[in-house]
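seq:
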Amino acid sequence: MSPEVYGSRSIRSRRTKSDLTVLLRACQEVISSEPGQITIRHLFYRLVGLGVIAKSEREYKALGRHLMNWRRAGLIPWSAFADNTRWYYGSRRFDGIEAALLNTRDAYRRNLWASQNAYVEIWTEKDAIASILTEEADSFGVKVLPLRGFASGTALYNAAEAFKAQIDAGKEVYVYYFGDYDPSGLAIDPTFRTLTF
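struct:
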């Protein structure tokens, strides 16, 4: 898909039935092109990149309303989206020892970096692309940290302590950052470099 296929519209005008059909089709195409679940924010940025909608909070909220209607109507699958901001607290429970052993077998991942002289993390400005980065990074045992904009002081302090522990263990620390090429995206990296704890 290219931006020329759709063309963006003025955010002041109301969408016509034809506009909504074009938006629905674009959403369906993006969702079908993704290998797994995505966030609504990820879909929003894909649509902005294609020129289907404008990059504004108003458009993001409108997209959310349309998606709710389309999912209720069966036009967009509920299972297409992940919500990484919601989770529950509590310990995992099993129906028996066999189920626990099977879970251990399926969940076990050897730390590939334990014998390496490096420690690697990937940071991303947006939660929307974290799942895409994780698909590749997880197979190499690399963690992905979505910052959701500027990370909190607590998160940065915890990261600094983890990095110090790795350095004390004789490892070099590498953090790869993925962000937007806009003022806030460009400001994140130098801001983090100047922090001291």
